[in-house]
Each structure stands twice: as structure tokens, then as C-alpha cells.
Design a protein that fits this description.
With 708 residues, this protein is α/β, with parallel strands linked by helices. Among the domains are: 163 residues, Rossmann fold (3-Layer(aba) Sandwich); 81 residues, no CATH class. The chain is 61% helix and 7% strand. The protein is built from 31 helices and eleven strands. The protein has a seven-stranded mixed sheet with strand order 2-3-4-1-5-6-8, sandwiched between helices. A two-stranded antiparallel sheet has the order 7-9. α13 packs antiparallel against α14 and α29 runs antiparallel to α31. The N and C termini lie far apart (60 Å).
Length: 708
């Protein structure tokens, strides 16, 4: 889609910027990367009242143009470079109406760069509720820009905002809030001459941040550095001086513009809730009760839709074999593609519930409290409170969680967080856990309240988090760094969750899970079906000859049906997939695994979810049940027997051994790739792969040997 103008959303964290982005763009959005860097770039399109199409770019949240993290540095990089594909024609600065003074610091900096902009005061409903009154007209006159009052949560003022975007073509008319040149006159003048700009503040920012600006050549970087040194440019001191000057100016701007009659009531209410939710004892008790509820809900609420989906795929497979012409293509479609896809689609209800509940916790402001509570605890293990965000995010997916570790200022804290985050059980492990738990853990209530399967699932997540924290403690002593880490975080006010946003998150995450995992699963299922259906010609000919002789001498229909099943099982064992599984079987036999599970371990190195799809394909290839009908996947796996002992393959010991293996093993190529990308070295992903695989093998071995 071609856009008539580019609009950048800029603002502090927790101002509702991303909510506004979703409102403006709806489902017409995509996520990519900013050119040359790995930071997420969210873009979408919006039709304005004038008929023009605006491309909306959601820039990372930042408190000022001086970055404290890799993500925050993107803001000035985009605004400073007119040749950047994301450089905007218009800036929409989103501010929190309930904390306007702090938000206007960033506004004043961005306005001084000389790009057309408007100011959006979000959370107007919250401001009214808290007794805050803002004179919009007076504020607009003093700042020299359009000011629009909205509530993104309630979709109020959206049409007015679109009209304002279409009309914003001129620069802010107010005089600059500071005399940028006065902070370093000679250096600013030299930079203006050097880079050819008339904007004093742009030149000052180049002096502060030229290292982040890739559009300068190496020679230009050296020349700018020489100007800094030659003029004794002290970046830390001058940033502080500028911030003080700006707040002094903003105090004059906001005098008699903002009237707050509810400040005392607002903070009293917030403090009363925080006194309980962040209490050094009760805060943790409440957090664990919330986790109990989440994992109980994942099993309890999803059982009905999962049964319907599983039954639907079994019916589809049965009808497909009945009505499609018999042959290789039908077998490939039904036993390869459909079986593999069914092994993923069935888990959509659980994935949707998980993301919905996490979204509610984030939306209400509770997740920020968890980060605050955990800071003191995490520091004892070599992490900071900010490490909690990637680790809790790891429950969803390790890839974006590792990328979010960029917000951790300390290099050591960041590296340790990256190294342990993949240990936290992600949504890709959820299908493996739920399948195995449903096989060996009874669906019963504990104390008449908690589901036993839900408690078992929570235990797996708890084990993974404990493992991550303990490994972090080890890395704390191995990795050396001189810098001291610190923890600064703003706690947002409590709010009701935005249900539309929760539903949107459920939809987006479930879609991503199916599409991203589905592509891998279908590809693996097709390859696996071919490998499971075909094998060395001489072996298959010998098997056919053996069973043809037996069938020729037997008239018993029951025995004939059994022989067909035995023929299929023996062919599977001698197929290319079977031979591959048997090659690694001696290594995994002490863990309680047979060659079929070995195949699943190999295929799931591409993606953990592939375990379920692989088992679905293998058992579909092996054949139907005694009555000739299609069995559900759980029934097929539960009925699998060891040909030598006649005992079930998936015993309690084997299932828990497998769950522990998947809890600790680095079986996700995307995670390996993102760790390399974030650390710019193969050293860290290789160490991660080795230590996690060793942990997985040892834990699985101990579990099986102790429980068998």
C-alpha cells in the first residue's frame, strides 16, 4: 500500500502509544526490523478524512532523546536521518494527561528538531476521574502546536486526531524552549558548519549521539569526535544542564494550564493497593495464587474446544480416507499434512487463554509490580528487576523476550538474562506438556478446587523458572564485569484491562503461533511422512514377501487385520525415519525413549512444537485401530506398546523424563539465531546450546531412572 505521508508515534512508555497505534491501523499492520538493526519496527496504514493514506510508524517508547537502551536509541536515529525509510513527515507525540510535566520533556526535545508535529493528550478519561483539568487551548497557544485530547482505551477523539494529522504541515510556532547553542557555543557552531544544518539543537544532539548515527561515514565520525575533544564537550554534564533548563521552562508553560485537585486521592488509592500487591510476603503469595489460577484455567477452560478440534481432525482424516481415491497423494495429505497440522491447531485454545491472561496482567499494571517485587530477589542471583520482563515474556516466546533484554542497561545483567531466558518454559513447550500430562496425570480435583493436571503444568513452569534463576547464579560468578547495574522503573497506575486489546492479542498471538509453527510443522510432516513411508527397497520387499506368505495360508479375518497392522509397523521400523531413530536409540534408551520418540527429538530441533506433529504423523503412518476407525492422537500414543515387553511406552517415568528434557533443552533454531544476532558472537549461543542440552539429558536420565 502506497502512503501519502509518514506519521511517527513518539512518546514515553506507558502512555498508551501502542494502543493508539492499534486503533489507527487495526489489522492493517505488520512487524519488521528497522534498516540495519534488529529492533522491531511496527508499521500500519490509516485512512485520513481527507482521503489520504498515512503510514503509521510506532517508534519505541523513550523518556527523552538521550537513550538508556538500544531500543530507545532508535528514536533519534529515525528522526535525525532524512534518508531513513521511517523518517516521518509528521510526528504525533503521545503524552499521558495524568503526568503531563514529565511527558512534555520529550515533547520539547522533539519539537526543537524542527519536524511538523502535534501533541496528543491520551488518557483524558483517567485525568477527569483523577480530578486533573487541562486548558487545551491555552496549552496549544503556548506550545505553538495542535493539541488533541483523546482516550485510546475508549476510542474517544479518534476522528479529531485523524483530522489534526491531515492538517499538520507546519513546524511548531513557539520559540525554542532552550538556547541549545548556549550549552557549547563553539562545538555547536562547528558541527553546524560541518554537517550543513541551521538547527542548533540538531547539531547539539549530533555531538551527543553521533556514535549511534550510521549515516555518518567513519571519517565524519572521527571529525565530529575531534570537535568534541577540541571543545571539551562533556556530554553527561550538558545533558543534565539541558534537562534542568527544560523543566524550568516547562514549569512556566504549565502554570495555570493544569489544575490537579485529585493528586492526594489518586496516590492514596494507588498506595493502598500497592501496600498489598507489593508486600514482601503477601505480594509473593498473591503472585503465586495468580499463577495457580492461570495454569488451572489453561487446562480447565480449554478442554471442551480441544476435544472438538481433536474430534474434528479425526473425523476429517477418516472421511478423507473414505472419499478420496486411495493412493500416495491421499496418504500424504491425510496422514502427513492433516495429521501434522491437527497436532498444532488443537492447542490454539490453550495458547489463546495463556496470552489473554498475560495481556490482562500487563494491561492492569500488575506485571510492572511483579518486576518491582522481584528486583531484590533477582539481584542475589546476578540478575536485575528488569530481567523479570524477558523471563516472564519467555512464557510466551523466548525470541521477542531475548530482544526485549536490550532495555537492561548493564552488559553483564543483559548477557545473563539472554543466557537463561530460553530455560523458561515457552508456549512452544505447552503442546508437549499438555499432551504428556493428559496421558499420565489423572483429570482430578485437588482439595476440590485445583485441577491436578493444571498443578502439574504449573510445576513444570516453576521448575523451569527455578532452573533459570540457579543457572543465572552460576553465570554471575563466571561472567566478569566492572560496571554496576541499577534498576529504574515507572509503575503505571492501575487500570481496567482493555478487553478489545486482550481479544486482539489473543487473535494475533494465536495466528502467529499457527502460521509460524504451522509452516515448520507442515514441512516437517511432509518430509517425515516420506521418510516414514519409504525405506530401502530390499527391506520393504522382504517384509511384503513375509506377510504375503502368511496371508496366503490364513483365512481368519481377525488375524488378517492384525497382520496388516503388523506389516505397517514393521515397515515403519525399517523406513528411513525408523532407521534414523534406531541409530540414536542407544543414546536415548537410558532416558526411557524408543526410536519413535528419537525421531521426534530430531525433528523438534527445528521447533519444539514439532514433537506433537511428529508423533501424529508417525502414529498415522502406523495405521488405525482394531475397528478400522481413526483413533485420536492421545489414544494412539497412550495405546502404544513396547514390542519386547508388551508394556506401555508412555509410562509415568517416560512422560516426566520427556517433559524435563523439553523443559531444559535448547530445541529452537530461532532462539539460537536471535541470541547470535543480539550478542554479535557465536560464543554465547554455542555455550547456551551445550549447557542446555547437557542439563536436559542429565535431568531426563535422573527422572526416568528414579521413577521407573
Amino acid at each position: 500500500m502506497l502512503a501519502d505521508l509518514k506519521v511517527a508515534l513518539v512518546g514515553n512508555p506507558n502512555t498508551g502509544k501502542s494502543t493508539l497505534f492499534n486503533l489507527l491501523t487495526g489489522l492493517n499492520q505488520k512487524i519488521g526490523n528497522f534498516p540495519g538493526i534488529t529492533v522491531d519496527k511496527k508499521t500500519g496504514f490509516c485512512k485520513l478524512p481527507s482521503g489520504k493514506i498515512a503510514e503509521i510508524i510506532d517508534l519505541p517508547g523513550t523518556y527523552s532523546l538521550y537513550p538508556k537502551s538500544k531500543d530507545e536509541s532508535i528514536v533519534f536515529q529515525v528522526l535525525a536521518d532524512k534518508n531513513n525509510s521511517s523518517h516521518p513527515d509528521v510526528i504525533v507525540l503521545v503524552a499521558d494527561s495524568t503526568n503531563l510535566r514529565r511527558n512534555l520533556l520529550l515533547f520539547s526535545q522533539v519539537a526543537d528538531l524542527g519536524i511538523p508535529m502535534l501533541l496528543v493528550l491520551n488518557m483524558a478519561d483517567m485525568a477527569r476521574k483523577e480530578g486533573i483539568s487541562i486548558d487545551i487551548d491555552k496549552l496549544s497557544e503556548r506550545l505553538g502546536v495542535q493539541v488533541v485530547n483523546i482516550s485510546a482505551r475508549k476510542a474517544e477523539g479518534l476522528d479529531t486526531l485523524k483530522q489534526a494529522i491531515a492538517q499538520t504541515t507546519s513546524l511548531a510556532t513557539q520559540t525554542s524552549s532552550i538556547e541549545a547553542k548556549s550549552f557549547a557555543p563553539e562545538a555547536v557552531e562547528a558541527i553546524k558548519q560541518k554537517i550543513g544544518t541551521n538547527n542548533d539543537y540538531y547539531a547539539l544532539q549530533v555531538l551527543h549521539q553521533h556514535e549511534h548515527l550510521a549515516f555518518f561515514t567513519d571519517k565524519e565520525q572521527e571529525e565530529i569526535e575531534a570537535i568534541e575533544i577540541g571543545n571539551g564537550f562533556d556530554t553527561v554534564k550538558l545533558q543534565g544542564d539541558e534537562t534542568v533548563a527544560r523543566y524550568r521552562h516547562l514549569g512556566k508553560i504549565l502554570s495555570d494550564v493544569v489544575v490537579d485537585t485529585g493528586a492526594k486521592r489518586k496516590f492514596t488509592f494507588t498506595d493502598q493497593i500497592d501496600a498489598v500487591l507489593t508486600h514482601k510476603i503477601w505480594g509473593f503469595v498473591i503472585f503465586f495464587l495468580i499463577l495457580f489460577f492461570i495454569f488451572n484455567a489453561i487446562f480447565s477452560w480449554s478442554s471442551v474446544p480441544m476435544d472438538l478440534i481433536e474430534g474434528g481432525f479425526a473425523w476429517l482424516t477418516e472421511k478423507g480416507h473414505e472419499h478420496l481415491p486411495p493412493g500416495v497423494l491421499t496418504d500424504l495429505l491425510m496422514d502427513g499434512v492433516v495429521a501434522g497440522l491437527g497436532g498444532i491447531v488443537i492447542f490454539i485454545p490453550q495458547i489463546a487463554i495463556l496470552f489473554a491472561l498475560i495481556s490482562i496482567l500487563e494491561d492492569t499494571g500488575y506485571m510492572a509490580r511483579v518486576t518491582f517485587m522481584m528486583d531484590k530477589v533477582m539481584r542475589k542471583f546476578g540478575l536485575s528487576g528488569k530481567s523479570v520482563v524477558p523471563m516472564i515474556g519467555g512464557i510466551a516466546c523466548a525470541v521477542p523476550s531475548i530482544m526485549s533484554a536490550r532495555n537492561i542497561e548493564s552488559w553483564k545483567d543483559r548477557i545473563i538474562t539472554i543466557m537463561v531466558t530460553p530455560l523458561v518454559s515457552c508456549s512452544a513447550r505447552l503442546p508437549v506438556y499438555t499432551l504428556l500430562i493428559s496421558l499420565v496425570v489423572p483429570d482430578e480435583k485437588v482439595w476440590g478446587l485445583f485441577n491436578l493436571q493444571g498443578l502439574t503444568l504449573m510445576a513444570m513452569y516453576f521448575i523451569s523458572i527455578v532452573a533459570a534463576v540457579l543457572v543465572a547464579a552460576v553465570f554471575k560468578f563466571i561472567i566478569k564485569a566492572k560496571e554496576r547495574s541499577y534498576f529504574i522503573m515507572e509503575l503505571p497506575v492501575y487500570r481496567m484491562p482493555r478487553w478489545k486489546n486482550v481479544l486482539f492479542t489473543m487473535y494475533e498471538k494465536s495466528k502467529t503461533f499457527v502460521l509460524e509453527a504451522g509452516k515448520v510443522i507442515i514441512a516437517i510432516s511432509i518430509i517425515l511422512w516420506v521418510m516414514s513411508t519409504y525405506g530401502p527397497a530390499k527391506r520393504f520387499e522382504a517384509i511384503d514377501a513375509k506377510y504375503d506368505r502368511i496371508e496366503a495360508t490364513s483365512a481368519d479375518t481377525v488375524q488378517l487385520a492384525s497382520l496388516e497392522r503388523d506389516r505397517a509397523a514393521e515397515k515403519l521400523e525399517n523406513s528411513y525415519a525408523g532407521l534414523l531413530g534406531q541409530t540414536i536409540e542407544p543414546m536415548i534408551k537410558p532416558l526411557g525413549y524408543d526410536w519413535k520418540i528419537g525421531i521426534a527429538l530430531i525433528t523438534s530441533f527445528a521447533a519444539r512444537e514439532a514433537f506433537v506433529g511428529t508423533m501424529a504423523t508417525i502414529y498415522s503412518v502406523e495405521g488405525a485401530d482394531d475397528d478400522g476407525g481413526e483413533m485420536r492422537l492421545r489414544d494412539k500414543i497412550g495405546a502404544a506398546k513396547d514390542p519386547q515387553t508388551g508394556l506401555p511406552i508412555f509410562t509415568f517415568a517416560t512422560a516426566f523424563s520427556l517433559m524435563l528434557f523439553y523443559a531444559f533443552a535448547m530445541q529452537c533454531m530461532s532462539t539460537v539465531a536471535v541470541v547470535y544476532r543480539e550478542t554479535k558472537s557465536w560464543k554465547w549461543p554455542v555455550i547456551q546450546l551445550v549447557y542446555m542440552t547437557a542439563m536436559a539429558y542429565v535431568a531426563a536420565l535422573m527422572a526416568y531412572q528414579l521413577l521407573k
